[in-house]
Amino acid sequence: MATKRSDWIDWIKTIIITVIVIVLIRMFIAVPIVVEGPSMLPTLEDNDRLIVDKISLVFQDPQRFDVVVFHATEKKDFIKRVIGLPGETIEYRDDQLFVNGEYVEEPYLQEVKRNLDPEATYTVDFTLEDIPGGTMTVPDGHVFVLGDNRKNSTDSRHLGFIPLEQVTGISRLSYWPVKNIGIVE
């Protein structure tokens, strides 16, 4: 009889420890999320499932071209790509990205741009002064983000600069659907 009771106690301890570990991982290390909407096409599709890395933000701020998750409102998180970092000037001219006056290639958009009508523009021209709260440079403690689907994305062009404290994680891995399993680039 004592063995059965001991077995039950061991099972309960195991379950409690497992729950605690899962909660700690979700709070501080990584969390699964679901992509909602077309704003990150062609990189991410509606209903893709991702693992978002939270722990790396403890050690460093997001880097250019990281795909980040941030609080857009109290109840809604958005997924977008970091384009501008604090202190940088950002400009789109003739469908090309310029950071601090230097052309910067966006490899994740090459295929979609190749398939465009030669007369079409994927990203409409703008400078940081054209966006809400516009300034000459990205303010300290903020990033400038865009969706990869430039024609259908609510991003910094509409929301303004994103405070770093609102960034909750960096999308690292896509795990569903199976055809999209891999590193988020």
Automatic annotation (TrEMBL):
The reaction(s) this protein catalyses: Cleavage of hydrophobic, N-terminal signal or leader sequences from secreted and periplasmic proteins
Gene3D superfamilies: Umud Fragment, subunit A
GO biological process: signal peptide processing
Species of the source: Gracilibacillus ureilyticus
Major localisation: membrane
Domain of life of the source: Bacteria
Subcellular location as annotated: Cell membrane; Membrane
UniProt keyword Metal-binding present: no
Catalytic residues (UniProt): 39, 80
GO molecular function term, any single one: signal peptidase activity
Top EC category: hydrolase
PANTHER family, sorted: CHLOROPLAST PROCESSING PEPTIDASE (PTHR43390:SF1), SIGNAL PEPTIDASE I (PTHR43390)
Signal peptide location: none
Name this protein carries in UniProt: Signal peptidase I
